[in-house]
Structure formats: structure tokens, C-alpha cells
Design goal:
The chain has 378 residues and is an alpha/beta fold. It has 14 helices and eight strands. Helix content is 48%, strand content 11%. The longest helix is centred in the middle third of the chain and has 23 residues. The model has no long low-confidence stretch (mean pLDDT 98). The structure holds 5,6-dihydroxy-NADP and zinc ion.
């Protein structure tokens, strides 16, 4: 096992009717900015619950943060915050609202060009405090310090990470997820599954506790993911999916083990250039990454096949292939497509993506690797 340090400062408040507790978590004299997305919170009762919780606080609103949150939009919120002297941010929505709010929090007092926080991962020394009311289980952003931002002008989708970007608290009320469209439910389950995979499907690190944790999360996603689609008002199903998605990317299963985020990095380009949802890109890309890097992922593919999918028969090579197929079939069982052609894309999309990785001089994901991965996925 590798050395590690682990510190996760996010207070999680989980369960039914917990949004009212926002009032206990925000400093009494705070001036709050509520950030939200395209309006789903105004149709499912979340907005009213947040307003009620904030009745004793001075507060303003900033709506319109898009899926794949845009830098340009975030900068409008920064202007508002400076003008109105906001002291606390409350992000209400899915991963995009939370990620956008993390950039906003960091940009407010940043001396230089705020795009450098994302593009150059420029360090920042202060950020406004953030609270979260999460409405979409998927990204894990509610319990991590990561943020993924899109710059519309240049069609770039890039991430940054900072200890200052952790939310102070996150409220996870599974009932807020009843209103999710099936496509977002599926995207979320796929995203959480792939988060586990990026931290697990790597050379064994003599870390059985992390392995068993990771496999447990995968099993829960497989057992409950489909039920969230077929029984959307089942509270316990929603609760288990929500907690599994949080546990998939709060740093715990990454302790002491190697990670490989190739599927995410290649997937981000498909969103940036062709507009696929984040979860959709992952379902397309991951089987290609696993086959391209089969040698280094072989032992864990075998292990996952046996422990998660119950694949025990046949030669090791066959079992590895069956494990990759079982994973793709799981994504398809959720209604998520797994081929570029199913999104109307053909092999012509591959070279521009390969060139982007070449231009960045990416240490691990070479242009040739991108070509090999995506050629399999047309
Ligand atoms: O904008 P509104 O109207 O709120 O609608 C949203 C949006 O259209 C809707 N929605 C959210 N909660 C709902 C709901 N509709 C009905 N009922 C609800 N309860 O769902 C749509 C998608 O929302 P979005 O926030 O974009 O989805 P998600 O949570 O999947 O976030 C995706 C973003 O997170 C990034 C992705 O790259 C992408 O930009 N990621 C962030 C990570 C992190 N910070 O750690 C890690 C991930 O790998 C991921 O990259
Ligand atoms: Zn993801």
C-alpha cells in the first residue's frame, strides 16, 4: 500500500426532510447567495424548502448555471457577489451547480485571471464558504474538493481541485431525487460506477480493504441502479444510490492505491466538442480504455469479474473479456448507449481529440492511446 494522508472536512446531513437544517449550518449574520441551475428546483419543491430554511437570513439568488457549468456564467455571479458583499454560497442542484459554485467561491478574491484557476490550476489562498443541497447523485462533488468547468468560447472542459473547495456541509435528501428524468438517473449511476473504476481498476496495491470497499459500492450501484429507474419513488433505493455515489468519490477508496482517470479525461473531450452528457461519455469510453490497457488492469478485471459479477468459469483471458462485457451490458441495461455511432458520431471525431492530448503533452494519455481507445468505440 502506498503512503497517504486523508482529510475530509465535509459535514454530511443525510435523510428525509433535512433541508430545513440549512439554517443551523450557516453563520447567523451571513449574507447568502443561493446558486442554482435551469429551474428544476422550482418544479420539485426544493426551492420552497430552501427559501423556508433561509427565512431568517439575508439572501440573494443566482440561477442559470448550465449542465457542464460555464466559466462565462460563473463570472457573472462573481460580479454580483462583489457588488452585494455576499459572504456565504449555498449551491442547490446537481454536480454542475456545485462545481460552478466552487469556481465562483475561489474567483471572488482571486487576484489574477480566474480562468487560470482552471486552465493552469493556479493556486488560490482564499474562497468563500459553500454549503450544498444536492439534488442529483452522481459526481461526488458534495464531498470532495474538485470542480469541472467548461469554457464555451474555446470548447474546453477542464478541472481543478483544492482543499478550499470542499463544501462546509452537504445536505443529501434522497426525496429530492424523485423528480430526476431517467436519463439523469442513468448518467448518475454510470458516473459513480466509473469513479470507483478509475480508483480500483489498476494494478493491485495490496490494499484489500480499499478493494472490498470499492467492490461494495459497485455492487450497490448494480443492485439499486436499475431499481431507481423501475421504482422511482422507492425511498430506500434512492437513499442507497445517493450514498453510494457520494462514497464513490470522497477520497476514501483512493487511499494508498494507484488511480487512472483516462476514461474521464477522454470523456471530457467528447462533452466539450460534441455535447454528450458526462455519464454518456464514460459509458462509451471505459470499455475501450480497459481493453487498451488490459495488461495493467488484468488482475483487477479478473477480481471484479468474480467478486462483482460472479464470473468464475473459463480461462482468465475469457473471464476478463466477460467482465468488460458485463460492465458494458450493465450500462446498457440502464438505457445508456455505449457507442459513438449511437450518438450520431463517426471515426472523424477521433483525430481532433487525439491532437488535443498531443498538444497538451499529456504524460500518460498519448495521442496513440486515444486513437486506440476510441477506434474501438465507434
Ligand atoms: O439545471 P437544472 O434545471 O437544475 O436541471 C438539471 C440538469 O438539467 C437536472 N436536475 C438536477 N437535479 C434534478 C434535475 N432534474 C430534476 N430533478 C432533480 N432533482 O439534471 C440535469 C443535469 O444536471 P448536472 O448537475 O449537470 O448533472 P451531474 O450532477 O451529473 O453533474 C455533471 C457535471 O459534474 C462534473 C461533470 O463533468 C459535469 O460537468 N463532474 C464533477 C465531478 C466532481 N466535481 O468531482 C466529478 C465527475 O467526474 C464529473 O466530471
Ligand atoms: Zn465523473
Amino acid at each position: 500500500m502506498k503512503n497517504f494522508s486523508y482529510h475530509n472536512p465535509v459535514k454530511i446531513i443525510f435523510g428525509k426532510q433535512t433541508i430545513a437544517q440549512v439554517a443551523n449550518e450557516i453563520p447567523a449574520h451571513a449574507k447568502v447567495l443561493v446558486t442554482y441551475g435551469g429551474g428544476s428546483i422550482k418544479k420539485n419543491g426544493v426551492y420552497e424548502q430552501v427559501k423556508a430554511a433561509l427565512s431568517g437570513f439575508s439572501h440573494l439568488e443566482f440561477g442559470g448555471i448550465e449542465p457542464n457549468p460555464r466559466y462565462e456564467t460563473c463570472m457573472k455571479a462573481v460580479e454580483l457577489i462583489r457588488r452585494e458583499k455576499v459572504t456565504f454560497l449555498l449551491a442547490v442542484g446537481g454536480g454542475s451547480v456545485v462545481d460552478g459554485t466552487k469556481l465562483i467561491a475561489a474567483a471572488v478574491s482571486f487576484g489574477g485571471n480566474p480562468w487560470d484557476i482552471v486552465a493552469k490550476r493556479a493556486p488560490f489562498t482564499a474562497a468563500l464558504p459553500i454549503g450544498v443541497v444536492l439534488t442529483l447523485p452522481a459526481t461526488g462533488t458534495e464531498m470532495n474538493g474538485n470542480s469541472v468547468i467548461t469554457r464555451a468560447e474555446t470548447q474546453e472542459k477542464l478541472s481543478f481541485s483544492s482543499p478550499l473547495a470542499y463544501p462546509k456541509f452537504s445536505i443529501l435528501d434522497p426525496e429530492t431525487t424523485y423528480s430526476l428524468p431517467p436519463r439523469q438517473v442513468s448518467n448518475g449511476v454510470v458516473d459513480a460506477f466509473v469513479h470507483v473504476a478509475e480508483q480500483y481498476m489498476n494494478p493491485p496495491a495490496s490494499a484489500p480493504l480499499q478493494d472490498y470497499y470499492a467492490e461494495s459500492i459497485l455492487k450497490v450501484l448494480i443492485e439499486e441502479g436499475g431499481k431507481a429507474l423501475s421504482a422511482p419513488l422507492d425511498y430506500n433505493v434512492r437513499a442507497n444510490v445517493m450514498w453510494a455515489a457520494t462514497m464513490a468519490l470522497n477520497g476514501l477508496i483512493a487511499c494508498g492505491v494507484p488511480q487512472d482517470w483516462s476514461t474521464h479525461e477522454i470523456g471530457h473531450e467528447l462533452t466539450a466538442l460534441h455535447g454528450l452528457d458526462h455519464g454518456q461519455t464514460l459509458a462509451v469510453v471505459m470499455p475501450g480504455v480497459w481493453r487498451t490497457l488490459r495488461a495493467q488492469k488484468f488482475d483487477k478485471l479478473l477480481q471484479m469479474g468474480e467478486r462483482v459479477f460472479g464470473i468464475t468459469g473459463g480461462a482468465p483471458e475469457e473471464r476478463v473479456e466477460a467482465a468488460i462485457d458485463a460492465t458494458e451490458n450493465f450500462f446498457r441495461s440502464l438505457g445508456t448507449k455505449t457507442r459513438l455511432s449511437e450518438y450520431g458520431l463517426n471515426a472523424s471525431v477521433i483525430e481532433p481529440i487525439a491532437q488535443r492530448f498531443a498538444a497538451r503533452g499529456h504524460a500518460f494519455i498519448t495521442a496513440d492511446m486515444v486513437r486506440e481507445v476510441l477506434t474501438q468505440r465507434v
